[in-house]
Amino acid sequence: MKPIRLIVCSGLLLVFACSSVQAGVINVPGDEPTIQDAIDVAINGDEVVVVPGTYPEAINFLGKAVTVRSASGDPSDTIIDGTGFFHVVQCVNGEDLNSVLEGFTIRRGEATGVFSPDDVGGGMYNFKSSPTVSNCIFTDNHAKISGGGPEGDGGGMYNDNSDPIVTDCTFELNSAEGHGGGMYNDNSNPTVTRCTFSVNSADLAKWNRSGGGMFNAYSSPTVTDSTFIGNSAANGGGMCNDHGDPIVTDCNFKLNTVDSGGGGMLNFNNVPTVTGCTFSGNSADDGGGMFNLTSNAMVTECIFSGNTANTNGGGMWNNSAAPTVTGCTFSGNLADFEGGGMYNFQYCRLRVTRCKFINNAAVNGGGMINRYGTDSIVTNCIFSRNWALDGNGAGMSNFDRCSPVVTNCTFSDNRIASNPAGGGGMSNEVSSSPTVSNTIFWGNVPEQVSYDPSSVRHITFCLVEGGSAGFGNKDADPLFVDAFADDLHLSAANSPAIDAGSNSLTGGGPLDLDGNNRFIDVPDAGIAPGPIVDMGAYEFGISHCLCDNGLVGDVNCDGVVDLADVNLLGAHWLETI
Questions:
Q1: What is the pLDDT of residues 557-575, one digit of tens each?
Q2: Which CATH number, 1.10.3470, 2.160.20, 2.60.120, 2.60.40, labels domain 29-272?
Q3: Rounded mean pLDDT of the chain?
Q4: ω into residue 117 within 30 of 0, thus cis?
Q5: Are 198 and 170 in contact, with CB atoms under 8 Å apart?
Q6: Cα→Cα distances 216→122, 219, 241, 381, 441, Å
């Protein structure tokens, strides 16, 4: 017996036998033999429920606000196989978020047509439509460049002037001979959440960009809590952003590779916002982790670790760019030539604040290199245990008219492997004259700071091992907590770096590398009257009330609980950050 549909008409409840569908639910293959047949007879608000199996077809939502879902909710057992079709799924009739695709594997779409759009979007093609896609797997879909044009984009999904919501999906083993192996966005702003882009590839030639996992052209997607792993491309292995301002938050870019720039991510002519992301184990010719070309990227609280560059910029590569990098860690990155942690080239105007550069390596500029007129502003950062393998500037190298402003930083135990001279902490060559203040250089090998004859020394209120000319400079052990473990906090109230800086030169605001208040006066320390800023990246004071000596009340960590501790606590009572 067929199910019924309830219809309200002229205030009366009429019950009609329905010869084709249930009341709002169409079962496949129970009521209709194929998914497309079910969509054809559906009306807005209906559900198409598909039992597990493999369905050799392609589907088009036809502009209908219907939900097409698997009965099991498991995409691995309900498969739409698009072998022989240009697109497995299409939304091209103005579909909105009420058109829902849920719980399927979408596979073997072949966008091999001669003319657009049949050469894009092998897995799914959206044109001026914004459907909801959740819990789906897009795999083994392809887009190829044919004789009619240069496209071949979006192997897994292609969005053209579309803003779909894509949640809990996997894009794996998709490919594009053009851009966007996993997903291509053209003038589109999708919302992508908890998705995985794995082992997708895009093959377009070197400088036409590429985007193995995702390519964004004049698009500003919001991508959150997603993973890009093992993707490959010419540029932008994990993600390639060409114009547009994507927002990327809490994502993981891992083991992506490219032939040219941006193993994890490439940004070009845009202002992306990248927050809380991890870039690890990515590789490229330039910019193993991230590549910024004429881009003012906003990169905050990210980790760049274990990335490699065959040439420059193991962690990050910046060219004619003005990124703002805040609260990031660059560790264990390697460049075969320059800029193990970060490479800044050709008139960059970047700001680097509260960052850590630890154990990075390159021939020159193990932690950071600034080249050709780059004037970085580097504040409240540490450079620890970085290596220059056969050149200069293990911590930082400035070469050819570079005059960065370096304030309240700490350079410790950076080393040049084979050059008997040169700045282990910082080197300055070819008319490079940085302004350095409130900074500590200690334990760097072979020299703390070096200058060639064309570069001018501007160092004030700094603690430099071996001494340095300049007002307010000191030469005394800063008493780090544990330099070998990269803990460059000041360990005791008698550190010569405490209250020894210049407040007028801080430049980086009221917070130190830990985010603690910068102006905390320690009684009987440094220069009076206070509060006076400390030298180095970390401020000593109330944040260090729990000392390693076991004396809980020893606020100033001098080994004695006394009136000085009470005074320090009282001076900052009820203080907040």
A1: 667 888 766 766 666 566 5
A2: 2.160.20
A3: 90
A4: yes
A5: yes
A6: 17, 5, 5, 32, 43
Please indicate whether residue 547 or residue 255 has the higher confidence score (pLDDT). Answer: 255
Amino acid at position 507, single letter: G
Which letter, b or e, does each residue of 200-213 get, where b requires 16 or more Cβ atoms within 10 Å of its Cβ? bbbbbeeeebbbbb
Sort 51 into a burial class: Cβ within 10 Å, 0-12 / 13-18 / 19+.
Answer: middle
Residues 6+ apart with CB under 8 A from 306: 280, 281, 331, 332, 333
For the chain, the structural domain boundaries read 29-272, 276-475, 477-577
pLDDT for 571 equals 60
User: What global pTM score does this model have?
Assistant: 0.91
Residue 325: CB atoms within 10 A of its CB come to 27
Category of 139 on φ-ψ map: left (φ > 0), alpha (ψ -120 to 50) or beta: beta
Cβ–Cβ contacts within 10 Å for residue 528, how many? 11
Q: Is 147 exposed, middle or buried (0-12, 13-18, 19+ CB in 10 A)?
A: exposed
What are the structure tokens assigned to 307, written together?
A: 């990335």
CB 251 within 8 A of CB 226: yes
- 533-to-128, 326, 327, 415, 475 alpha-carbon distances in Å: 56, 20, 20, 28, 18
Nearby residues of 34 by Cβ (< 8 Å), 6 or more positions away: 28, 55, 57
| pLDDT tens, residue by residue, 350-379 | 999 999 999 999 999 999 999 999 999 999
Which of the 8 DSSP states describes residue 533?
P
For residue 242, the Cα-to-chain-centroid distance in whole angstroms is 15
Q: How far is the CA of 362 from the CAs of 52, 205, 292, in angstroms?
A: 54, 28, 19
Q: Residues 81-107: what's their mean pLDDT?
A: 98
In this prediction, residue 547 carries a pLDDT of 55
Q: How far is Cα of residue 179 from the mean position of the Cα atoms in its chain?
A: 20
- What is the per-residue pLDDT for 493? 81
